[in-house]
TrEMBL record:
Native source organism of the sequence: Candidatus Jidaibacter acanthamoebae
Pfam families: LRR_6
SUPFAM superfamilies: RNI-like (SSF52047)
Protein name as it appears in the record: Uncharacterized protein
SMART domains tied to this protein: LRR_RI
UniProt keyword terms in alphabetical order: Repeat
Length: 336
């Protein structure tokens, strides 16, 4: 049985050429036959979203639906929200790049407070502000199924980060959170860090492109000293310099859970690199470290290479210079 179906543009155009009833029947048939349907960039209109909503309210087959890049706006989001209240089988929903805004986001989140089936939700790139996630705390405190939440490239800001942090303290199911490119700054990072200190299930956190400086880095570092479940942390493209990196380094020297750390495109110089070298001497869990697009000199790069030779646990190292030499040395450890 075919379990995945993606409409190409020609097929979708053929569907649109049918009358309204014929179109609805074809979509309904596709949803019954397949467990995953991809309508990304299909130029859906509101009437099509309303059809899909009606079908989802009765459908018991579909588990994954991709509606990315369709500009469904808040009205379309409200239609999808109605379906989510009744649907019991959909587990993955992509709504990225749809201009749903605060009003649409509120509708989706409110529906998910009642829905206990959805596991993964992508609402990235939707012009969602703090007001749009005002009920996120209720969602993450009451919903028992969502494990993955992607809010990348919105504008939740400091207050939005605060609401998410409050939810993290009590949530028992979320394992992956992406709030990169949301302008949370140092204060927002501080809030998220406080949520991390008490959270016992989040394993992946993306807070890249968030204008997090040294103060925010120190807050995150403090959380890492207390949190033992986070394995993936992305801090790419934040203005963290050597002062903040020293705090991060001290934390990873003692942390026993983090396996992936992205510090690329920050403002790390030789002094910060040296602190990372010292951390690698004692850390035994980190397996991937990303340091590209910083300001680390050749001498410190060589020292990092030496530290990696001693630390057999780090099997992946990314740096814009000296990568090939480091890679060869790492592979030789494993006889490759």
């Amino acid at each position: 049985m075919v379990i995945f179906y993606m409409f190409n543009q020609e097929q979708w155009n053929q569907l649109l050429a049918q009358d309204e009833r014929g179109l609805q029947e074809r979509i309904k048939t596709a949803c019954k036959r397949h467990t995953s349907i991809d309508l990304k960039g299909a130029k859906l209109q509101l009437i099509h979203i309303q059809m899909i909503s009606e079908i989802l309210q009765e459908n018991k087959t579909l588990t994954s639906l991709n509606l990315d890049s369709n500009n469904i706006d808040s009205e379309g989001a409200e239609s999808i929200a109605k379906a989510l209240i009744k649907n019991k089988t959909l587990t993955t929903l992509h709504l990225g790049l749809n201009n749903i805004g605060d009003k649409g986001a509120k509708s989706i989140i409110q529906a998910l407070i009642e829905n206990q089936a959805l596991i993964s939700l992508d609402m990235s790139g939707n012009h969602i502000g703090c007001d749009g996630i005002s009920n996120i705390t209720d969602l993450l405190e009451n919903n028992k199924t969502i494990t993955t939440l992607d809010l990348y490239c919105n504008n939740i800001g400091v207050q939005g980060a605060k609401r998410i942090a409050q939810a993290l303290e009590n949530n028992k199911t979320l394992t992956s959170l992406n709030i990169g490119l949301n302008n949370i700054g140092d204060e927002g990072a501080k809030n998220i860090a406080q949520g991390l200190e008490n959270n016992k299930n989040l394993t992946s956190l993306n807070i890249n492109y968030n204008n997090i400086g040294n103060k925010g880095a120190k807050s995150i570092a403090h959380a890492l000293e207390k949190n033992y479940t986070l394995t993936f942390l992305d801090l790419y493209f934040n203005p963290i310099d050597d002062e903040g990196i020293k705090s991060i380094a001290q934390a990873i020297a003692e942390n026993s859970s983090l396996t992936f750390l992205n510090l690329g495109a920050n403002n790390i110089h030789d002094e910060g690199a040296e602190s990372i070298i010292q951390a690698l001497k004692t850390n035994r869990t980190l397996t991937a470290l990303k340091l590209d697009s910083n300001h680390i000199g050749y001498e410190e790069q060589a020292k990092i290479e030496q530290a990696l030779e001693r630390n057999i646990h780090v099997v992946s190292f990314f740096h814009y210079k000296g990568f090939i030499g480091v890679l060869k040395k790492m592979l030789s450890k494993f006889g490759i």
